[in-house]
Amino acid sequence: SILIPWPDFPDDRDGRAGNRIAQILLHNFWPKMVRSSGVIPMEFIVQEDGRTVPVPDPTNHRAYGLFTRALNFARKPNPIYGTRAITVGNDHKVTGHIAFSEAPVIRGAEQVTIDDPPPEQLFAASVHHVALMRASELVVNYLPFHGIRDDRDWAGVFLCSAADDVSAAFAKSENPTHDDWVAKRLKGREKTWVKMTKTSKIPAAVRENFGIIQEVQPGPILGLGTITPVLDQFSEAYLAGDGDAPGPGGGGGGDGGGNGGARIPKPVFAGLRFDSASGHAVATFNVNVTTPTSISVRACAEVVGADLDELPEDMRPPEIISWTLPDGSKQQGDVCKLRATGNYRFEVRFNGRYAVKPKCILARNT
């Protein structure tokens, strides 16, 4: 995957955008910077205005160095390294392995200060976290355990099992932004694997590792309120079950009533961009016509979870900008006559602070 960001840091007066991106790469992709079988899995390069910005080496970092050592232990499922297998259920299904690394609390030159942006502030005060990690060694998130061995910095790594059934279950449990494992997205034994691993077995392994007997519950992930419900709505509204990201299906359907039997195709999310001129987001949806027709349809978009008259004054209602026809020509407005087979495309301009649900309806009197 290739991401081309356009970072907007209001306080970035000294050209630190490149440094912030480098820190964010370190926070999310440090496992790919740790040698495995003698080689570094991935190389990261950040450039800002022609200047190469170095990405910190995680192995020498105060916080991430602890995680790299724990990862190297977790890669070797052997008790000699203190690595524990996490098992769930009566059949003792192995869902992954967990390992730890610890060090005296030292605040050196690499201490993260309040001037650094999130997510690095997560480790500003101390490191008492377990990195939840996919079998492919990508960080999902960091589970905090404040109050356990506060006299030391320590880090844990839970590395999900590479077994096909377990790996698939944890992948399906991820939310649209792939930064959490959500058991309620699953059913049956898969739900049990994810729920028990995250909420019971990992905390138990932490307590066992540090000799803590009393029940200590982990705090909220990242110390922040989760936006998972909002992202689920966003995923449902845009992808409508047709994309490759996890999320519930449905939404965005067509309305075939009263059109003489002709089927109005369902819009499918095609892309999202930022219109700098208007300062609004623009979503693109495809309407694929596979059989000859001559109906006129009107594209419209609803705000998910609210009526248009309920929007605050500073929120612009969604607006259909234009249609692009199969021959590449464009026409303004929300109505389009589907005269030929092929792909039709319409754009919705809206305030990016809410999600939209598109649909096409029969256009009357056109």
Walk me through the topology.
Layout: H1 17-29, E1 46-48, E2 51-53, H2 64-74, E3 84-88, E4 93-104, E5 128-133, E6 139-144, E7 152-160, H3 164-172, H4 188-210, H5 228-239, E8 268-275, E9 280-289, E10 296-303, E11 319-324, E12 330-332, E13 335-337, E14 342-350, E15 356-362
Parallel strand pairs: 5-7
Antiparallel strand pairs: 1-2, 3-4, 4-7, 5-6, 8-9, 9-14, 10-13, 10-15, 11-12, 11-14
Helix pairs in contact: 3-4
Characterise the protein shown here.
The chain has 366 residues and is an alpha+beta fold. The protein has helices at 17-29, 64-74, 164-172, 188-210, 228-239, and strands at residues 46-48, 51-53, 84-88, 93-104, 128-133, 139-144, 152-160, 268-275, 280-289, 296-303, 319-324, 330-332, 335-337, 342-350, 356-362. The protein has a five-stranded mixed sheet with strand order 3-4-7-5-6. It has a five-stranded antiparallel sheet with strand order 8-9-14-11-12, with no helix packed on it. Strand 3 and strand 4 form a beta hairpin. The longest helix has 23 residues, at 188-210. The chain is elongated and about 75 Å long. It starts with 16 loop residues before the first helix and ends with a strand. The relative contact order is 0.09. The model is unreliable at 107-117 and 214-261 (pLDDT under 50).
